[in-house]
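Bumping my old thread because nobody answered last time. Still need a sequence for this structure:
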C-alpha cells in the first residue's frame, strides 16, 4: 500500500517537472539585441522592468528603454548616469538614430504601397491629384470631411494617399507622429525658400498671431490651394484689411472719448536726410500710429511746430487730449507754451526718456566722468577698428563685446563703462598677455596708451564712481522707456528713490552733490509735471505703503490739485472727486476688500494693442500688429475696485494710463524706413 502511494507521488512529481520544462521551452525568449544590455543587468526575474546600471548601480523601473535614456542623458524625466563613458553614449545614440531612420523608411514604403491607381478617373491625372472641393467657397471645412474620412481624424497627406481598410500600422505603433515631423520639415523648407527669394526679414515669423492663423487656414484648406495673386493682395484684400483696421481705430476713438489720450511726437532722421515727425495717439487701449510728417523745413520753427500741435489736436478732438509729449528741443518748448495759451486744459509734457538722457549728458561733462568717458571711447575705438585685435579680445572675454558708446545717447556711456567693468579682469589679462605685448599692437602708441588706461587703478576707481551714479538713473530710464507699463504713477517716486540710492552709495556728500544739482535742475525746470504728482497719489501700489510721507508732502499735493483743476473744468465734478478721495485714502467700501488690498501690487497684466497706419503715395495703406505689452496693474486695479468712487475712478484711469515718453516706439522707426522701398512694392 505504501509502495503504491510513493509510486503515485513519484508520477505526480515527474508530470510537474515535465510541465515546467514545457513552459520554459514555450516561453518567449528575452530580446537581448539592444546594446544597452551590455551595460545593464536585471535585478530579479520576477520584476523584468527593474534594471541596474553597471556603471553607477542605479536601479530604474522603466525597462531597457528608460535605461537607455539613463545612459545617454538629456531626458528631463530620467536621471543621467554620471559615470558612463562618452564612447558608450555615442554608440547608443548611433543605434537610436539608425533605428529612427529605418522606421522612417518603413513609413515611406508603407505610404507608397497604399497609393491607389484609379484608372477610371475621367478628369485626367491632374484632377486626381487635387482634393475634393469644399461645398462653399470661403468656409473652412474640417480636414477630415474634406478628405472624405469618417470617424478618424486624418492629416493633409491623407488627401493624397488612401489607406485600405485591412492595413495595420505596423510595428512602429503610431507612425503618424514621425510622418507629421517629416511633413512639417518639408513645409518649412519650402516656406523658408520663399522667404529667401522674396527677401523677407527673418523676424517676420515672430508675428505669431497673424502668422499662426495663416498657417492654420492653409492647413484647413488642404493640398492644391492656389496662391494669392499680385492683384488680389494689392486690391480687394487690401481694402478688406483697411476696413478691418478702421473698426479697430473706432474702438480706440471710443476709449479716447472715455478716458482721454496722449499725443506723442517723435523726430527721426531718415537715411536720405529728411527730418520725419511720427505722430502717435496713446490711450488705455494702446498706441495708434496716426501719420508721418516731413518736417525738414519746419522742425526748428516753433510757430510751425505749434501749427502741427494744433492740427493734430483738432483732428482728434481737443476735449479728448490730455497731453502732448515731445522731446526737449527749444522749438517744442516754445510751441508748448503757445499750446497752453490756446488749449489751457492740455499739458505739454517733455519726454522723460529724453530728459534723463540729457541728465546723463550733463553728468558726463563733469570731471572725473568726462575724462573716463573719453578714455573708454579711445580704448573701445582702438580695439574695434582692428579686427585681429577684436578677435583677440573676444578670446579673453569669452566672445563678449563692449557696448559701443554713442555721442548723442549719453546713457550708452554708462552701459559701456558697465560692460568694461564686467570684463575688467579679462581686459587686464589681454593687455599683459604675451600674445598682445609681442604683437604689433603692443608696440603702437595708441596700443600702449590703451594698455596704460586699462591697467590704471585710478581709471577703475572712477569707473566705479560713475557706475554708482548712473545705475539708479538707468533704472528710471528703463522704467519710462520700457514697454511693460505706463510709468505715470511711478516716475515721481522713481526719481526720489534714485537719488536715495545714489546718496547711500557714498559716504562723502561731495562725491554726489554736483550730480544732485544737475538732476534737480532738469527735474524742476523741465521734467517735473503735476501729472507725475497726481500719478503718485493715485497709485495704490505706492500710496498706501508711503501714506504718512505722501500726506505730508505739500508740493506733491499742490501738483495733484493743480492737475484736477486743469483736466476737470467742471467745478461740480472737482468737488465730487475731492469728496470721493477720502474713501480711497481710508480704504473704505470696495477699496477695503481683501482682494483689493491684496491686488494693489499683484493685479495680473493684460495686453495692449499697437496699431500702425502708413501713408504711401496719397493712399492709406494700413498695417497693424499686436504688441505684447503688460497693461499697468494700477489701471486694472482702478477698473476693478473704483466703482465706489466713479468720478475719482475715471480721473485716476485718465492719469495713470498716460505715457511719460515719446520714444517708446522709436526703436521701430528704422524698420519703417524700409517699408515699400522697392519699386515692385510701390502702391500706385
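Sorry it took so long. Here it is:
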Amino acid at each position: 500500500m505504501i509502495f503504491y502511494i510513493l509510486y503515485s507521488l513519484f508520477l505526480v512529481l515527474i508530470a510537474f517537472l515535465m510541465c515546467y520544462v514545457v513552459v520554459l521551452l514555450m516561453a518567449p525568449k528575452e530580446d537581448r539585441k539592444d546594446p544597452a544590455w551590455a551595460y545593464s543587468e536585471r535585478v530579479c526575474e520576477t520584476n523584468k522592468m527593474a534594471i541596474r546600471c553597471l556603471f553607477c548601480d542605479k536601479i530604474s523601473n522603466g525597462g531597457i528603454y528608460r535605461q537607455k535614456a539613463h545612459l545617454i542623458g538629456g531626458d528631463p524625466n530620467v536621471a543621467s548616469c554620471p559615470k558612463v563613458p562618452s564612447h558608450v553614449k555615442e554608440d547608443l545614440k548611433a543605434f537610436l538614430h539608425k533605428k529612427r531612420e529605418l522606421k522612417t523608411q518603413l513609413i515611406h514604403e508603407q505610404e507608397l504601397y497604399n497609393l491607389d491607381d484609379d484608372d477610371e478617373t475621367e478628369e485626367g491625372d491632374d484632377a486626381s491629384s487635387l482634393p475634393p472641393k469644399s461645398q462653399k467657397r470661403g468656409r473652412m471645412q474640417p480636414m477630415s470631411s474634406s478628405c472624405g474620412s469618417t470617424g478618424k481624424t486624418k492629416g493633409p497627406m491623407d488627401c493624397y494617399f488612401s489607406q485600405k481598410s485591412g492595413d495595420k500600422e505596423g510595428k512602429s505603433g503610431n507612425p503618424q507622429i514621425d510622418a507629421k515631423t517629416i511633413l512639417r520639415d518639408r513645409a518649412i523648407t519650402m516656406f523658408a525658400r520663399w522667404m529667401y527669394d522674396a527677401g523677407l526679414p527673418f523676424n517676420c515669423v515672430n508675428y505669431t498671431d497673424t502668422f499662426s492663423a495663416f498657417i492654420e487656414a492653409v492647413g484647413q484648406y488642404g493640398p492644391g490651394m492656389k496662391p494669392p495673386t499680385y492683384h488680389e493682395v494689392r486690391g480687394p484684400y487690401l481694402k478688406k484689411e483697411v476696413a478691418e483696421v478702421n473698426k479697430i481705430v473706432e474702438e480706440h476713438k471710443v476709449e479716447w472719448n472715455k478716458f482721454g489720450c496722449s499725443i506723442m511726437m517723435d523726430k527721426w532722421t531718415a537715411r536720405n536726410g529728411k527730418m520725419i515727425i511720427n505722430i502717435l495717439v496713446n490711450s488705455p487701449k494702446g498706441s495708434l500710429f496716426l501719420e508721418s510728417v516731413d518736417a525738414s523745413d519746419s522742425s526748428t520753427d516753433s510757430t510751425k511746430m505749434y501749427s502741427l500741435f494744433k492740427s493734430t489736436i483738432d483732428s482728434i478732438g481737443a476735449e479728448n487730449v490730455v497731453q502732448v509729449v515731445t522731446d526737449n528741443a527749444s522749438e517744442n518748448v516754445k510751441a508748448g507754451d503757445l499750446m497752453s495759451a490756446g488749449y489751457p486744459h492740455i499739458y505739454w509734457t517733455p519726454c522723460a526718456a529724453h530728459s534723463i538722457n540729457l541728465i546723463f549728458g550733463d553728468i558726463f561733462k563733469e570731471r572725473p566722468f568726462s575724462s573716463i568717458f573719453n578714455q573708454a571711447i579711445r580704448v573701445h575705438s582702438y580695439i574695434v577698428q582692428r579686427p585681429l585685435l577684436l578677435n583677440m579680445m573676444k578670446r579673453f572675454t569669452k566672445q563678449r563685446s563692449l557696448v559701443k558708446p554713442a555721442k548723442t545717447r549719453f546713457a550708452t556711456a554708462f552701459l559701456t563703462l558697465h560692460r568694461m567693468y564686467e570684463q575688467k579682469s579679462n581686459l587686464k589679462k589681454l593687455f599683459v598677455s604675451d600674445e598682445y605685448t609681442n604683437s604689433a599692437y603692443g608696440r603702437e602708441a595708441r596700443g600702449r596708451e590703451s594698455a596704460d588706461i586699462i591697467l590704471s587703478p585710478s581709471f577703475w576707481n572712477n569707473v566705479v564712481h560713475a557706475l554708482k551714479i548712473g545705475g539708479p538713473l538707468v533704472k528710471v530710464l528703463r522704467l519710462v522707456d520700457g514697454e511693460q507699463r505706463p510709468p505715470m504713477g511711478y516716475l515721481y517716486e522713481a526719481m526720489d528713490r534714485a537719488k536715495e540710492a545714489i546718496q547711500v552709495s557714498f559716504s562723502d556728500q561731495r562725491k554726489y552733490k554736483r550730480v544732485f544739482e544737475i538732476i534737480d535742475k532738469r527735474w524742476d525746470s523741465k521734467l517735473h509735471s503735476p501729472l507725475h504728482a497726481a500719478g503718485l497719489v493715485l497709485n495704490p501700489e505706492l500710496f498706501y505703503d508711503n501714506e504718512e510721507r505722501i500726506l505730508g508732502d505739500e508740493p506733491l499735493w499742490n501738483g495733484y490739485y493743480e492737475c484736477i483743476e486743469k483736466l476737470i473744468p467742471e467745478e461740480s465734478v472737482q468737488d465730487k472727486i475731492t469728496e470721493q478721495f477720502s474713501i480711497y485714502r481710508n480704504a473704505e467700501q470696495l477699496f477695503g476688500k481683501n482682494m483689493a488690498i491684496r491686488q494693489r501690487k499683484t493685479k495680473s497684466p493684460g495686453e495692449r494693442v499697437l496699431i500702425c497706419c502708413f501713408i504711401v503715395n496719397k493712399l492709406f495703406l494700413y498695417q497693424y500688429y499686436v504688441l505684447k505689452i503688460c497693461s499697468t496693474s494700477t489701471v486694472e486695479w482702478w477698473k476693478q475696485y473704483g466703482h465706489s468712487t466713479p468720478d475719482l475712478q475715471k480721473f485716476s484711469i485718465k492719469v495713470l494710463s498716460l505715457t511719460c515718453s515719446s520714444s517708446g516706439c522709436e526703436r521701430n522707426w528704422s524698420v519703417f524706413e524700409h517699408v515699400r522701398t522697392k519699386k515692385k512694392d510701390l502702391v500706385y
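The first strand starts at residue 40 and ends at 42. Let me know if any region looks off to you.
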